[in-house]
Design brief:
- The protein is α+β, with helices and mostly antiparallel strands and 112 residues long.
- The protein is built from two helices and three strands.
- A three-stranded mixed beta sheet has the order 1-2-3, covered by helices on one side.
- A hairpin with a 4-residue loop joins β2 and β3.
C-alpha cells in the first residue's frame, strides 16, 4: 500500500541531513547509508550513495529516473550464480535399445 500524499515521501532524518549538507557544500563524496527504506527525493539527484545490502555497500549514483523509488531497490540483497548443471550421463544410458519399441508402428518389413 502506498504512502498518503499529505505525508509526503519518507526519508530518514539522518539521511536527509547528510543530503542537505552535501548540497550546501557541493560535496561529491559518497554518502554511506543503511536506510534502504528511504525514498529517493529530487534533492538527492547527482549524489552517490553507498547503500548497504546486508553484506557490503553498493554504490548508487542517483539520477532523475530514480525519484520516488526506494534506495533498497538499487542494491540487490541476493546474488544469482546460475542454475546447477546436470551431471553428464553416459551416451549408452540415454539412447533406447533397438528392440524396445516405444509405442510406434511396426517396422515396414514385418507388414507384408
Amino acid at each position: 500500500m502506498a504512502r498518503s500524499i499529505k505525508k509526503g515521501p519518507f526519508v530518514d532524518d539522518h539521511l536527509l541531513k547528510k543530503i542537505e549538507v552535501a548540497k550546501e557544500k557541493g560535496d561529491k563524496k559518497v554518502i554511506k547509508t543503511w536506510s534502504r527504506r528511504s525514498t529517493v527525493i529530487p534533492e538527492a539527484v547527482g549524489l552517490t550513495f553507498a547503500v548497504h545490502n546486508g553484506k557490503k555497500f553498493v554504490p548508487v549514483y542517483v539520477t532523475e529516473n530514480m525519484i520516488g523509488h526506494k534506495f533498497g531497490e538499487f542494491s540487490p540483497t541476493r546474488s544469482f550464480h546460475g542454475h546447477s548443471e546436470k551431471k553428464a550421463q553416459p551416451a549408452a544410458a540415454l539412447s533406447k535399445p533397438a528392440g524396445a519399441g516405444g509405442g510406434g508402428s511396426a517396422p515396414a518389413a514385418a507388414k507384408s
